[in-house]
Design goal:
This protein has about 750 residues and is of the alpha/beta class. The chain contains 23 helices and 26 strands. The strands form seven sheets. Strands 9-14-13-12-10-11 form a six-stranded mixed sheet, sandwiched between helices. Strands 1-2-3-5-8 form a five-stranded parallel sheet.
């Protein structure tokens, strides 16, 4: 059955990519087949049919097992009506559009993520959705990614903590989660085919930790395999990703589901560990059954996938009903206020005080707000707050106009239009549209004071107008109640407490992946390695407009009494005191970074390793305790194939943001002394660096030659640097007096014993 064409199809590349998919039409099992497969002694064809969708959103009902509904919904449920065409992005039942992940990331608050997810779970159950496709947890590698509004941050720890809170609350509320998109899915350009070429250390330290945390700590119902390839292998049939790593190493026991239309080889995908293909694709069930019958696929592989799908269907059962739309809208407004970031506030122009008698509100987004992104996560909201109307409610006897000339204060609502960013394509610039910049500058010239409120799903440049205005509030996309939340923040009903979850650069060219994004000829190289976002900017000391972690509020905070206690060879406990030094209630984000040069790999200047958000009344203080486990100090060693904490100095830093450190303390960690086993192919440098073998080799060389005894320390060091990259077997040929063979055998044996005699 062909998919119906929706009027909005041309606006949404995702919909176009689905246009050739169709609903499977399968005959139900005959009475004879049912009798032959009583209970769950089902036949091979029935088992195979359970491993792909019946249609766009539901699993196949088999022998009494009811179908499960999977629905979009990272920040709100997109449940299409039974008679919908299944391609219309906007044709869905009304649901609350909560703040998308781009906003939640800036809350730096797992409670915000959790409260949002609990409400989404309630609506999913009411709308008959069993598994919600979200959260999106891919790292913001480039500000150009068209889907960045669905992702939390450029940092894996912040992403992982928020996503874990989301999944826990969603599933506690009775809806299964589908964490996505696994893995290295960081662009929309050529997303169905592009190969992300990324080394293992970068994968392990940047692009996988958030998924690892969620899998281990929240046990999501499903993990969604991405469209793209990872190092040449499609993620939907990547054995290392889906089985070796996800199941065997991390212990995932849920369902691996494909992104919609991602599977190009169903049998290979099943072998690799992909259980459920969505949506239904005619012919693939028969291919699975045929592969079992011809011996190219073990039936045990089918049985394992079937068991996991059965468990998912049985565990997550929705209860159709109603939800409290008014209460959820109020919650959306409260949460949105936690997410906006006050970037600039010269002269304390905000909050709007009694001396401001006339307020001008300008810009198209003041009356037609932009509050969510385009594509599969697009929610049909139950209602939408209009910023101008909400400001009028709070302005009291102040005059609210749309003419900034002579106004005490002008508020400009600016940002990106729906068509500027969406799932399915990437941006080519971070500049605001020229007409937006002209509006901001003209308003700033006409009004006494000017505030800019931004609405955008991805980072936009502030250059060309930033210095002309008095205050800037980055509102991101705040969901359907964002207009009311912004009004609350502007008038001080609540104080801003958001912090940037991604860097705002001065220029696009200043971003680490600029020359590698979005790739060419089907390949995108992750050439920047682990230097993503603030890790890059801080390491190379590249100036930015606003750093990761930046955010202002209406009170002041001070940090004191930093103390770091080493609690083990590779662990520590950090304590500090936070005090509200201002005259009103507020919230502060404690950001803990670790800086080190220990180990054999290049480390970023600093990395976020812990954070917490505290709320304090004026003059109040609280003691914060943060425990740092081994991963807070570790790097991924590609030679050892595991996490390692190198012995050495580690500086614990408390940052106002990633650029501004307000307190720090350095400790020494014993870590793990890695005594590498040496061979004749090991380099001279590796031989001399070995903690036990190196000194002994130097002693024996010095004892063997007159020249060595008369060579100064500085000269010996210079000679060593000159030859340190040579394999030892080549170096031996340059020695004036050969080392006895027994000496080398003895020293290699010493290295195998880890230096123990």
């Amino acid at each position: 059955m062909s998919a119906a064409v929706h009027p909005d199809l041309d606006r949404f590349p995702l919909a176009r990519s689905w246009a050739m998919l169709w609903v499977k039409e399968k005959a139900p099992p005959s009475p004879a087949e049912r009798a032959a497969t009583k209970g769950w002694a089902v036949n091979l064809d029935q088992k195979a049919s359970l491993l792909s969708g019946k249609d766009m959103w539901t699993t196949e009902p088999v022998d009494g097992l009811p179908p499960a509904v999977l629905g979009d919904g990272p920040h709100g449920v997109r449940r299409q009506a039974e008679d919908a065409d299944h391609l219309g992005i906007h044709d869905s039942l009304p649901a609350t559009c909560f703040p998308p992940a781009v906003a939640v990331g800036s809350s730096w608050d797992p409670a915000v993520a959790g409260r949002l997810a609990a409400a989404v779970a309630a609506e999913a159950r009411a709308l008959g959705v069993h598994v919600v496709l979200g959260p999106g947890m891919n790292i913001k590698r480039s500000p150009l990614c068209g889907r960045n509004f669905e992702y939390y941050s450029e940092d894996p720890l912040l992403t992982g903590v928020l996503a874990t809170a989301h999944v826990r609350a969603l599933q506690a509320g009775g809806a299964g989660a589908s964490v996505k998109h696994f893995a290295a899915n960081n662009q929309e350009t050529d997303r169905m085919r592009v190969s992300a070429e990324v080394d293992e250390r970068t994968l392990r330290e940047i692009y996988l930790p958030a998924f690892e945390r969620v899998v281990k700590q929240a046990r999501p119902a499903t993990v969604m395999a991405a469209y793209n390839k990872v190092n040449g292998v499609p993620a939907s049939r990547h054995p290392w990703l889906l089985t070796t790593l996800l199941r065997e190493e991390w212990g995932f026991d849920g369902v691996v589901v494909s992104d919609w239309g991602a599977v190009d080889d169903r049998v290979a995908a099943l072998k690799a560990g992909l259980d459920l293909e969505m949506p239904g694709n005619p012919g693939n069930d028969a291919r699975i059954a045929r592969a079992v019958r011809d011996g190219s696929l073990e039936e045990a592989t089918v049985d394992r996938a079937v068991a996991r799908v059965r468990t998912m269907v049985g565990q997550w059962r929705a209860e159709r009903g109603d939800f409290d739309a008014d209460a959820h809208h109020a919650l959306a407004r409260e949460l949105a206020a936690e997410c906006a970031v006050l970037l600039k506030n010269d002269g304390g122009v905000l909050p709007i005080g009694p001396r401001v008698r006339t307020v001008a509100v300008v810009g198209p987004f003041a009356t037609k707000p932009r509050f969510q992104g385009g594509g599969s996560s697009h929610v049909n909201p139950t209602r939408v707050d209009v910023p101008l109307e909400e400001i009028r409610k709070l302005a009291g006897d102040r005059i609210v106009t749309t003419d900034p000339a002579g106004a005490d204060l002008a508020i400009v609502f600016a940002g990106l239009a729906d068509a500027d960013e969406s799932e399915g394509y990437d941006r080519t610039t971070i500049e605001l549209p020229a007409e937006q910049v002209r509006l901001i500058r003209a308003t700033a010239a006409a009004a006494r004071r000017t505030v800019v409120v931004l609405s955008n799903g991805g980072v936009v440049s502030l250059e060309g107008w930033h210095d002309d205005v008095d205050a800037v509030m980055e509102g991101w996309l705040l969901g359907q109640a964002g207009g009311g939340a912004v009004a609350d923040l502007l008038f001080g009903v609540t104080a801003p407490s958001g912090r940037l979850a991604e860097t705002i650069p001065l220029r696009l060219q200043d971003t680490a992946c600029h020359l590698n994004f979005p790739g060419e000829q089907g390949v995108v190289r992750y050439g920047e390695g682990v230097m993503v976002g603030y890790r890059f900017h801080e390491t190379v000391e590249r100036p930015v407009r606003y750093p990761f972690g930046h955010g202002l509020t209406y009170t002041g905070f001070a940090v004191s009494g930093l103390a770091v206690e080493v609690t083990g060879d590779d662990t520590a406990r950090v304590r500090l005191t936070v005090t509200n030094t201002g005259d009103r209630h507020g919230k502060h984000v404690v950001q803990l970074y670790v800086a080190t040069s220990a180990g054999p790999v290049r480390r970023p200047a600093r990395e976020l390793r812990a954070f917490t958000k505290v709320a304090l009344d004026p003059g109040a203080s609280t003691t914060v305790t943060l425990d740092l486990d081994a991963r807070a100090f570790a790097y991924w060693d590609v030679l050892e194939g595991r996490w390692l904490v190198a012995p050495g100095a580690y500086t614990v830093q408390i940052g106002e943001n990633a650029s501004t450190i307000v307190a720090e303390e350095t400790v020494e960690l014993a870590g793990e002394v890695l005594a590498k086993e040496l061979t004749l192919d090991s380099s001279v440098g590796e031989w001399f660096a070995h903690p036990a073998v190196g000194p002994e080799l130097m002693r024996r060389l010095a004892a063997g030659t007159t020249e060595e005894r008369h060579t100064g320390a500085a000269e010996r060091a210079g000679l060593l640097r000159m030859v340190e990259s040579l394999p030892l077997r080549q170096f031996l040929g340059f020695l004036p007096t050969p080392l006895p063979e027994g000496t080398l055998t003895e020293l290699m044996a010493l290295s195998r014993r880890g230096g123990r005699t």
